[in-house]
């Protein structure tokens, strides 16, 4: 992994930043990109590098949503010490994020070897891209029905139960190709939450999940073997691109359905299947 060039670092940083928060699967895109760059996706160092450059994307969420983070933290601490504050929407939303972050942490830690090994197969990525596209399409159909019925809910109505259910669905994103944001936004839409709120909640849930994954890899991996300079470049590039992606996605979902992402995922999944069948790419 120390042979990773700075050009490759920039490419991987761009791919990470572009796809981490879009519902298209960053892990799937990084796996394909690493294959095209001639990297061994089964190498633990490659897996660790992928997780560590996610820290750039997560710092982007901290910066972009800093005021929201401070607001929710204050609401949570006030609610803990003052019972009269517990009826406020921000207190419930803070608990939704906390509770929703627990399932993926437990499942991700328990299955970390499987996730970093057999599940990195491009056959898995292709299947997950296509299959979860169906879920996203169904979520949009359900959401449209709720909008017609006037049953759509906003951020002030998010409950701890919403957070738990969305957090449980987030566990599916541990399968490369599903997409963490694709899983959480879809779950939010199924729960009747409006698209912008579901997307914002997806970002909030990303903060503890990605931070934990990145720090765990940083603490358990020989960083010298990754190439400190290359890793730093990847993190910085991922930060810049991810920040722009966050702003774009929030603006996009305010007026558009996820249909464009669904079509993209299906086409990409089909192309990967063709490439694997033709021998242009290897699964592992």
TrEMBL record:
Entry membrane topology: Multi-pass membrane protein
Catalytic activity: di-trans,octa-cis-undecaprenyl diphosphate + H2O = di-trans,octa-cis-undecaprenyl phosphate + phosphate + H(+)
A UniProt-annotated Pfam family: BacA
A GO CC annotation given for this chain: plasma membrane
Matches recorded under InterPro entries: UppP (IPR003824)
Compartment annotation: Cell membrane
Single Gene Ontology MF annotation: undecaprenyl-diphosphatase activity
EC number: 3.6.1.27
Coarse class of the protein's main subcellular location: membrane
Segments traversing the membrane: 46-66, 87-110, 122-139, 201-219, 231-250, 262-283
GO terms of biological process kind: cell wall organization; peptidoglycan biosynthetic process; regulation of cell shape; response to antibiotic
Keywords: Antibiotic resistance, Cell membrane, Cell shape, Cell wall biogenesis/degradation, Hydrolase, Membrane, Peptidoglycan synthesis, Transmembrane, Transmembrane helix
Family assignment from sequence similarity: Belongs to the UppP family.
Function: Catalyzes the dephosphorylation of undecaprenyl diphosphate (UPP). Confers resistance to bacitracin.
More details: Bacitracin is thought to be involved in the inhibition of peptidoglycan synthesis by sequestering undecaprenyl diphosphate, thereby reducing the pool of lipid carrier available.
Name recorded for this polypeptide: Undecaprenyl-diphosphatase
Organism: Candidatus Phosphoribacter hodrii
